[in-house]
Write a structure and sequence with these properties.
Layout lengths: L2 H5 L6 H10 L16 E5 L3 E5 L9 H6 L7 E4 L8 H11 L3 E4 L5 H11 L3 E4 L3 H11 L8 E4 L6 H9 L3 E8 L3 E7 L2 E6 L3 E6 L13 E7 L6 E10 L2
Helix pairs in contact: 5-6
Length: 244
């Protein structure tokens, strides 16, 4: 009933998840539904298997896309991968939640990406921060001008110089922090600096290796409890460092 109570529970690490999944395939006995009752089953490096649902915004990505200004009338060129790993479906579910259409572009085939962006008129990019630059540079080399004005990115570092380059090209770029296991954890908004915690998770910052919470402002490991009723993960260790 309190954050202090939560801190008494053990930390769940990816190695623990992998070991549990070997003993009870594919989800380690941690899902509420049977494996065949999920819409998708994904495989991430490890390998670790994650379930996926098609219910409304199952990964809670819509709030980030809304913060990025994406909604009805937009066409999202989704350049996250659709094969085995869940990133493509995570962002597609978010686009569906805010009423935007999706070009399921995936990764690679940059010349075809440019051709599709021009022919379809996509105006939003979703994908890793650096791949948008690859597409824009290819478009210039092909003598094409793209209509992308908004970018919702994740899965990599968004360096200030790269964000400025996009801004100079007329593209507003915001990033989120999500994982295959947890879905969306935090996201940016033009309203403030830093990242906003998603309302569907509880985030603790702990002293690495101990699970003990640190004071606000101190850097530590990000521990996340997700309140997904189909796949609840309690005190899941991300291995990432941050601060409140």
């Amino acid at each position: 009933s309190s954050m202090a109570d939560l801190a008494r529970l053990p930390v769940l690490r990816k190695s623990d998840l992998g070991a549990a999944q070997k003993g009870a395939r594919p989800f380690g006995g941690m899902t509420v539904r049977a494996p065949h009752a999920f819409a998708h089953i994904f495989q991430s490096p490890g390998p670790i298997y994650e379930p996926g649902g098609t219910e409304h915004d199952w990964w809670r990505m819509g709030r980030f896309l809304h913060a990025a200004g994406v909604g009805p009338g937009d066409i999202v060129q989704n350049c996250f991968g659709y094969h085995l790993t869940p990133a493509g479906m995570i962002f597609e579910s978010g686009a569906r939640a805010v009423g935007a259409a999706v070009l399921p572009a995936g990764t690679g085939q940059t010349e075809l990406q440019v051709r599709a962006a021009v022919d379809i008129g996509t105006n939003v990019y979703s994908g890793t921060p650096d791949y948008l630059k690859v597409i824009l540079d290819k478009a210039e080399a092909m003598g094409e001008r793209l209509g992308i004005t908004k970018a919702a990115v994740g899965g990599g570092a968004l360096f200030p110089s790269l964000r400025k380059e996009y801004a100079d090209r007329g593209i507003t770029c915001l990033q989120c922090y999500a994982t295959a296991d947890l879905g969306n954890i935090a996201y940016e908004s033009a309203a403030m600096e830093g990242m906003i915690l998603d309302e569907g998770v509880i985030v603790e910052i702990v002293r690495p290796g101990t699970g003990d919470p640190v004071p606000d402002g101190e850097v530590g490991e990000v521990i996340v409890t997700t309140l997904n009723p189909d796949y609840p993960l309690v005190r899941f260790a991300t291995g990432d460092l941050s601060a409140i």
